[in-house]
Amino acid sequence: VSFDERYAAHTPKSGELFARAGRVIPGGAGSSARTVKFGWKPYPPFIASGTGSRITDADGNEYVDYLLGLGPMILGHRHPVVTAAVTKAISDFGTCPGLPYELEIEAAAKVVEAVPGIEMVRFSNSGSEVVGSAVRLARAYTGRRLIIRFEGHYHGWQDTVYWSNHVDPAEAGPADAPRPVAAGPGVPLELTDTLIVLTWNDPDSFRRVMAERGHDVAAVITEAAVFNTGCILPEPGYLELLREETSKAGALLIFDEVITGFRFCRGGAQEWFGVTPDLTTLAKGLGGGFPVAAIGGSKDVMGMIAEGRYSHSGTYNANVVACAAVSATMDLLAEPGLYERQRKVGDRLAEGLRKLAADAGVPVRVDGLGTVFQVWFSDHPIKNWRDAERYANVDRFTRWYQEMFLRGVLFHPSQYENLFVSLVHTDADVDRTLEAAAEVFPVLAA
Ligand code: PLP
């Protein structure tokens, strides 16, 4: 029996909803990352509800949820404290005063306290928005135009950064001097002149380009650990090199911590790896599942906004829902021992998967950091997107996703996404996942 037939029998109601959705919503889903094209074949499951680490589809099937809304549900679904804080704030006050208010200061002060590189912060609504602002702010601050970014990193859908993310490898040029490739149609190709795209974790090409063009570079933007090409950690010394070379050249270093922020420790990747950027973007995780994003940085750079020399505007910026969610989430994340405990839960899962795969004779690398990881079906180390394209067995990954899904474990069907362990996943969730995996790895080996 094919997967499609088993899936249809498992999720008939989702099938009906998908047909209905497709008549009024392009692709039947509100973001392209939820569509058939992105791997949700033959159609995405439709969700009825979520509680904590579990999510239930329209057919009543419950899953241990490692998709976590693609990252934001860091406290699990419907965390009662965050829900109550938001409900209270909007009942007492409203949603969108269009002027500053006290709760906004509270939310901002808590983010400043948590993230080492943030002395001042502004709130917006999505990661794409704040990345767009960060890039333009860096250009305004330095008076330069050139941006360096890396292949396989995703920084949202704005024209300035929607490049070289999972494009056709045949178009991408040589690894030591990649060609910028727009990530989709509609991006003005004139922007090619404003970009240098490099292979990540490759110190030599970075050093060479900075020696040649460093004086023209406004900013280097990077995921500080890459979670948009599965999970790839920086090689020792690599982030330090980015920091050193940008400082030397008078360019800004932007850490796009939309995923890594608050993920495996409260201060994000910059705290974990001990490298402080000039600008930081945050989103997923920041509001415990509510839509909010932030751009923050040194007083010097954010001073451009303070002095009115750079306009960061937005009708919905720092709305009451966002600030109430941030404030409550920051309090919860400050619980002593929380991250240590959850990294252990994640590590136990990763270790369990490694062992089960080895027992079944399936070569895998489980790469990541405690509460976020990916299973590469590869016996070769993956240091960047080019390695992933070359060495990771995507067909095996698809079967892994399919078999786990049918056994009640949910994660994204693309190997370029990852598994998120929330701060409320438990050892019981891990046990249930490992039980499913113990059945699935032998199927993959067959
Ligand atoms: N930056 C990174 C690192 C991301 O992972 C994403 C989204 O996945 C974005 C930016 C864009 O964020 P949003 O989807 O909220 O616009």
From TrEMBL:
GO terms for biological process: porphyrin-containing compound biosynthetic process. Keywords: Aminotransferase, Isomerase, Porphyrin biosynthesis, Pyridoxal phosphate, Transferase. The keyword Cytoplasm does not apply. Pathway: Porphyrin-containing compound metabolism; protoporphyrin-IX biosynthesis; 5-aminolevulinate from L-glutamyl-tRNA(Glu): step 2/2. It comes from Trebonia kvetii. Its EC number is 5.4.3.8. Belongs to the class-III pyridoxal-phosphate-dependent aminotransferase family. HemL subfamily. It is an enzyme of class 5 (isomerase). The keyword Transferase applies. This is glutamate-1-semialdehyde 2,1-aminomutase. It comes from the Bacteria. Its cofactor is pyridoxal 5'-phosphate. It catalyses: (S)-4-amino-5-oxopentanoate = 5-aminolevulinate. InterPro entries: Aminotrans_3 (IPR005814), PyrdxlP-dep_Trfase (IPR015424), PyrdxlP-dep_Trfase_major (IPR015421), PyrdxlP-dep_Trfase_small (IPR015422). One of its GO terms (molecular function) is glutamate-1-semialdehyde 2,1-aminomutase activity.
